[in-house]
Write a structure and sequence with these properties.
about 80 residues; alpha+beta; two-stranded antiparallel sheet; 2 strands; about 10% strand; extended
Length: about 80
Amino acid sequence: MLKDIDEKGGTRTLKDIDHRAEFDRKWREFTPAEQSAIDAEIERLLDALKDSPDPLWGSIMNTSIEGGKANPFRVSIIS
């Protein structure tokens, strides 16, 4: 079960992720090998959190995407 916590501490239970159709459309752009690599990395990171001795291991924070900032990894080509 997924739970979402907003900036004010309010919670809601999710039956599915928001914007499922958009996610699925983007996910299909990856090759099966890329999808497997992404899934494996997510599992590795979640397992590391689960196995951590930190008592707050279940807290996954700061998942917001910040908009309006320049992407330092984007290459601009000026002709």
